[in-house]
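dude i think i finally got it to work??
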Amino acid sequence: MHPPPPVLSLAPSTRKGGTLERTVPIDSISVNRTLEPGDDVSELAEHIRNSGLQVPLLVNQNYELIDGLRRMEAMRSLGFTVVHVVPVTMFLPAATWIQRAREHGVLAKPLTPRRIWYLYSACLPLISVSRSHEMRGKKWGQGAHVHGRSRFLEAAGISSESAFQAIIQTYRTAQEKSTRGELARQAVDLLERGSTTVYGAVEYVKRHAEKGTITAPSEQLALLTTTAHTLSGITFGLKRLGQIHDDITNEQLAPVMKDLVNFRKTLYQLIRTLEREKDS
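look at this
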């Protein structure tokens, strides 16, 4: 057993590859997750002991960890109290470092659904900031070249857009305090135990969210509101349609449009009634 390496002294900030890299105390990094069960970092720690930390940890401007939990825990197990980090505020630099960590990682673990979800969640604020930055001073539709999801898939080495969507949908729903949220948490448990696939997790939620299962007043009101807003969008879109086909006139759609409008009005009346009862 080798003795732990000497603790690094806090080095001044340096600029490497156009990105500000710093050495900071490990305890100054905010982490909202833990290693997955059975995730042993001893081999990674030995690699870092022999070769050093090849890719710094990725954090945001508040020093909240985006990527590098295993590396951080390996460094901590070796006795290090400080670690190299790259703080980023925009998404594209973050994606570059995520890709660099994945491609360099000799001992990198494959991305599990939970890791994909955590990594994407950590990147979402950076994607939003990047879009706002690009749109500054521009009209809508001009610029906004930050395609967050596609760039994330590329950076993380995820080949299936549909599987990624299934993961995000399931884990996002599992954050909700609702009937669907509870079903999604059950689906996540099955997924992480290897009892279902990512597609099976989505189907699990759909299959069990049967008619009449949403009974909490707050959930019912939220669902009615979402449905009414969706109907508003549908009717607005249909009204803008020009002639569709020579054999199909817009007059033929008129009865359907009328039913949609009446149904939407009924839903909004019901929503107002429930809101008054809630406030009384």
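The two ends are 69 Å apart (CA to CA).
im so relieved honestly
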